């Protein structure tokens, strides 16, 4: 039975758009609607003044080689608060669910309790992601103040990894309780073609990379590892989501796939069904929904222990995480050990699927979040 609590689903983008925050907003909205009778989308918040700040950022970067982080600005908070406050008057809401809105609720005046969720906070992103480097000093200060206001305004905070949650507890001193709730795969279970996986060193070994940013996602190590593995195995590498600066006759490039398109999803399904490994050793990553999706198909993920990846990839459960300092030789050794020990590979593949079923899916997430809201006491 659904709860009668009325939920305001607050986002700056349209959560009904399957592309909003890479589909995460859509799956969160869908999940909460299974537990509450009323879940109203407050977004999108379209404001020409806020968009103008993005233009200012590009201008300052061009002239001064410095960025202005408009996404965490006081101006954005001020304008967003006015718009949101007006929309909240349409219904007597019991709770505000605010996913990844670092500035929108910072200056919002309301007595409605807020559950804020994200995969990171500004302090972690600063000088970690390329888009958060070369910031003006005043912009760093403004962003941290705004992030702290958002965090301290929340009655409940939920993060996708311990990496994110621990940082918030230590540096932003939240007023509300902090929880870790893993995000899920942006795929419906009924659409997954799952088959138990096996591996044979004498047959073709398929590696899969999925990502838009080849460099940030560890492209150099991927290609070096691939070339080294070719010396002993019949390895094929599929690159999906970008056009890398390298080529090889045993490498297939698929520049773009839209899982919301029926034909593209069939291709995505086939890639996951055929692949033996997901290989995305990112240099910087806040979480990684793609690791959850690989687990759904029983595909072990080989990645790097940085950022919030460990929230989606558990070492020796649904993949292998190597430390950031490791070179491509260490990755070659990981692949070699699994290829040469097929029973270990099959065990890792099965536990990948099990972790998806038990944790890395939106049904589990929505149940956990709904219980936090329902059991909340002021």
TrEMBL record:
One Pfam match, by short name? Glycos_transf_1
Q: Spell out the CDD domains in the cross-references.
A: GT4_PimA-like (cd03801)
Q: Which UniProt keywords apply?
A: Transferase
Q: Which InterPro entries match?
A: Glyco_trans_1
- The keyword Plastid belongs to this UniProt entry's keyword annotation: no
Query: What are the Glycosyl transferase family domain coordinates in residue numbering?
Result: 195-353
Coiled-coil regions, chain positions: none
**Organism superkingdom:** Bacteria
What's the protein name?
Answer: Glycosyl transferase family 1 domain-containing protein
């Amino acid at each position: 039975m659904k709860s009668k609590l009325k939920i305001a689903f607050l986002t700056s983008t349209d959560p009904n758009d399957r592309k909003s925050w890479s589909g995460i907003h859509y799956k969160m909205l869908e999940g909460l609607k299974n537990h509450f009778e009323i879940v109203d989308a407050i977004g999108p918040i379209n404001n020409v003044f806020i968009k103008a700040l993005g233009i200012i950022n590009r201008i300052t970067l061009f002239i001064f080689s410095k960025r202005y982080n408009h996404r965490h600005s006081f101006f954005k908070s001020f304008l967003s608060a006015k718009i949101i406050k007006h929309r909240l008057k349409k219904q007597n809401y019991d709770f505000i669910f605010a996913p990844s809105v670092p500035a929108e609720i910072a200056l919002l005046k309301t007595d409605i309790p807020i559950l804020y969720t994200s995969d990171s906070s500004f302090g972690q992103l600063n000088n970690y992601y390329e888009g958060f480097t070369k910031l003006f000093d005043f912009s760093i200060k403004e962003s941290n103040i705004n992030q702290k206001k958002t965090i301290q305004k929340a009655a409940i905070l939920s993060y996708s990894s311990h990496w994110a949650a621990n940082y918030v507890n230590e540096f932003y001193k939240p007023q509300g309780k902090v929880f870790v709730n893993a995000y899920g795969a942006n795929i419906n279970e009924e659409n997954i073609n799952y088959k138990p996986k096996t591996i044979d060193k004498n047959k073709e070994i398929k590696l899969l990379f999925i990502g838009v940013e080849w460099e940030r996602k560890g492209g150099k190590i991927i290609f070096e590892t691939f070339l080294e593995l070719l010396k002993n195995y019949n390895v094929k590498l599929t690159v999906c989501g970008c056009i890398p600066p390298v080529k090889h006759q045993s490498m297939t490039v698929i520049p773009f796939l839209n899982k919301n398109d029926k034909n593209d999803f069939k291709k995505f399904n086939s890639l996951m069904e055929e692949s033996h490994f997901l290989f995305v050793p990112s240099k910087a990553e806040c979480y990684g929904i793609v690791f959850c999706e690989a687990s759904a198909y029983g595909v072990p993920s080989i990645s790097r222990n940085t950022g919030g990846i460990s929230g989606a990839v558990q070492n020796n459960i649904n993949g292998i995480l190597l430390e950031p300092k490791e070179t491509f030789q260490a990755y070659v050794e990981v692949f070699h050990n699994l290829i040469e020990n097929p029973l270990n590979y099959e065990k890792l593949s099965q536990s990948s699927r099990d972790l998806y079923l038990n944790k890395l899916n939106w049904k589990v997430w929505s149940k956990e979040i709904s219980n936090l809201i329902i059991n909340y006491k002021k």
